[in-house]
Amino acid sequence: MKLKDLKIKKYKIKAKYKIIVINKMITTKLYIGNKFENVSDTNVNLAYVQNVSFDGNVFKNFERDAIRFNHGGYNNGILSFTNNEFLQDTLGGYNGIYFRIYGGGNINDTTIDIKGNKFVNIGTKDAGLYSGAISA
């Protein structure tokens, strides 16, 4: 099953809410101008997506990953992150952007484009290499 052109724009999400898209191929996904605040789990959890864009979003005081590309399918195409803010009042959260898996089959290329983002106090000291602004 394929879903096309899903756009999530200018939402304000607080507390335990999160967005999960998993095991449904989405060929174009846009997150524009949203605010996620005090989310106690992963804010946006994606799997089996192609061509995803995050632009102008704010992720503040999250406990796990702000954006996570999870297992369960291919994550490929252009994965774009521009002008987002990943902010913690104190050191915390696992990752701003976490790629558990990316790449497609032999036919599908993957380009990861990260520009103009702000990362403040992201990560935990005891997590080692798999915690910080961007981890894979």
Helix and strand content put the structural class at: mainly beta
- Secondary structure: helix percent: under 10%
Query: What's the helix count?
Result: 0
Tell me the number of strands: 17
Uncertain segments: none
Topology as a string of helices (H) and strands (E) = EEEEEEEEEEEEEEEEE
Shape label: globular
Mean of residue pLDDT? Answer: 81
Please give the largest β-sheet: 5 strands, parallel
Model description:
Helix content is 0%, strand content 55%. The model has no long low-confidence stretch (mean pLDDT 81). It has no helices and 17 strands. It has strands at 2-3, 6-9, 12-14, 19-21, 25-26, 29-32, 35-37, 44-46, 49-55, 58-60, 65-69, 75-82, 85-92, 95-99, 110-115, 118-122, 132-135. The protein is mainly beta. It has a five-stranded parallel β-sheet, with no helix packed on it. Strands 3-7-10-13-16 form a five-stranded parallel β-sheet, with no helix packed on it. A five-stranded parallel β-sheet has the order 4-8-11-14-17, with no helix packed on it. The protein is globular. The protein starts with a strand and ends with a strand.
Secondary-structure map with pairings?
Blueprint: E1 2-3, E2 6-9, E3 12-14, E4 19-21, E5 25-26, E6 29-32, E7 35-37, E8 44-46, E9 49-55, E10 58-60, E11 65-69, E12 75-82, E13 85-92, E14 95-99, E15 110-115, E16 118-122, E17 132-135
Parallel strand pairs: 1-5, 2-6, 3-7, 4-8, 6-9, 7-10, 8-11, 9-12, 10-13, 11-14, 12-15, 13-16, 14-17
